[in-house]
Amino acid sequence: MSHLDKSRLIDLPKYHDPRGNLSVIESGQHVPFDIKRVYYLYDVPGGSSRAGHGHLELQQFFIAMSGSFDVIVDDGYNRKRVHLNRSYYGLYVPGMMWREVENFSSGGVCLVLASTHYDPSDYYFDYDEFVQAAHKHHPT
After folding, report:
1. What is the SS3 string spanning 7-45?
2. What is the CATH number of the domain that holds 28?
3. Annotated catalytic, 16?
4. For 79-117, what is each residue's pLDDT tens digit?
């Protein structure tokens, strides 16, 4: 399994009810990490991109709470695009992965669960620097 394959869709429990559906997310049970931070992206203008950076340790779980968007993940060797458009599944992204979020639909809301508190030293903003680090962490 390549490092890129560790980034995967995870189904969340979905409880049907005539009054509306309910989904649950629990640390270490539905996502493979303890949740330390939650944030969300909204009112993103059409055609705009978010993220565009890599992380050393941070693990994330992306969910389309409303509308849709694409998450592009890149392990420094390969990349894949995942379209998210339902609130009962999400995309798990492990550490040492570059990510971009784009193609937001009108009214799209991206919820992100994170494994660590904000730490500026965990970020890679330069793609070439990220690729060099990724090749050291995950040589072919």
Report:
1. CEEEECCEECCCCCCEECCCECCCECCCCCEEEEECCCC
2. 2.60.120.10
3. no
4. 999 999 999 999 999 999 999 999 999 899 999 999 999
CA distance 37 to 78: 28
Please state, in angstroms and as integers, the Cα–Cα distance from residue 74 to each residue in 26, 65, 95, 121, following that order. Answer: 26, 23, 11, 19
- pTM value? 0.94
Q: Catalytic: which of 3, 16, 30, 53?
A: 53
Give per-residue pLDDT as tens, 120-134: 999 999 999 999 999
Number of domains forming the structure of the chain: 1
Domain hosting residue 74, numbered range: 4-137
Helix (H) or strand (E) holding 54: strand 50-55
Question: Residue range 35-43: average pLDDT?
Answer: 96
Q: Which residue has the tokens 């660590």?
A: 116
Q: Sheet holding 89-93: strands in order across?
A: 8-11, 89-93, 60-66, 109-114, 37-41
Helix, strand, or coil here: 86?
A: coil
